[in-house]
Amino acid sequence: MNTTKPEIKAILTDIEGTTTSIGFVHEVLFPYSSRELENFISSRADEPYINQIIWQVLNYGPDANLSEPSACQGPRASLNDAQIKQATEILRYWIKLDLKIKPLKDLQGLIWRTGYETGAYQGHIYQDAYEKLCAWHNSGIPLYIYSSGSVTAQKLLFGFTPYGDLNYLFAGNFDTNIGAKKEKESYYKIVNQINLPAENILFLSDITAELDAARDTGLQTAHLVRDAQPNPQAWHLQVKDFFELNKSYPAL
């Protein structure tokens, strides 16, 4: 039986836990956005885009139990101090729970820009991820990002790293605007935009449910288990870092 894997012609990668330490996101980015939320919203609440985001937050409510189309409906009017305070409390609650809700991710991306641009922190990239991403790019393999963080947040993280601006490495970015990361339909859309057969795309992530959805769509998958013990019963290829991919994919 022929067990040769189809050639990898594009690589789609997650960020948190894959190219970047989970600790950076939870210990640096999340606290910064939580701390800066109220001042940011108060100073820019009259801007149409910020106003729209805050009304979406208020429409969702703390439990975020509305569908996105329903949450996006509603008034577009000036916000008073009580509404700003309520929105801030909801957003901080969502940050604490690490909820993947679009208005939160959009707002965090805007707040994080200030932190990057003022030098409060730099984007963390694992050394192995940096070296392999550069090597794949230089060899002509198109690279794409798919993260629950907004495209803005993705470009900031890769734009302000100890290695300089790395956004040139990527042919495209995807976030939850294309769909949830645990849903097969999202990967069908991504495959369509990359315009390659699914079997020629390798998806890298640290989340099993995301890998399951990608595999069910036809993509090849690799599970990054950087700080965890490999599971011998796992369905997906497991690797400790990007270098280990060469064991299963010598051409990479």
Q: How would you sum up this structure, described in words?
A:
The protein has 252 residues and is α/β, with parallel strands linked by helices. It folds into 2 domains: 10-20 and 123-248, Rossmann fold (3-Layer(aba) Sandwich), CATH 3.40.50; 25-117, Transcription Termination Factor Rho, Rna-binding Domain, Chain A, Domain 1. Helix content is 47%, strand content 10%. The protein has 10 helices and 6 strands, in the order βααααααβαβαβαββα. A 6-stranded parallel sheet has the order 3-2-1-4-5-6, sandwiched between helices. β4, α9 and β5 (220-224) form a beta-alpha-beta unit. α1 crosses α5 (102-117), α2 crosses α5 and α8 crosses α9. It is elongated and about 65 Å long.
List keywords for this structure.
Transcription Termination Factor Rho, Rna-binding Domain, Chain A, Domain 1; elongated; single chain; alpha/beta; 6 strands; 6-stranded parallel β-sheet
Helix/strand/pairing category: alpha/beta
Report on the biggest sheet. Answer: 6 strands, parallel
Distance between the termini: 24 Å
CATH top-level class of the largest domain? Alpha Beta
Helical stretch tally: 10
Please state the overall shape, judged from the principal axes of the Cα atoms: elongated
* Overall mean confidence score, pLDDT: 91
Strand portion: 5-15%
**Which architecture of the largest domain would the CATH scheme give at its second level?**
3-Layer(aba) Sandwich
CATH topology of the largest domain: Rossmann fold
Number of strands: 6
Give the tally of structural domains.
2
Q: Report the CATH superfamily of the largest domain.
A: HAD superfamily/HAD-like
Largest beta sheet: what is the strand line-up? 3-2-1-4-5-6
H/E element string?
EHHHHHHEHEHEHEEH
Residue windows where pLDDT falls under 50 for at least 5 positions = none
Helix coverage percent: 40-55%
Radius of gyration: 19 Å
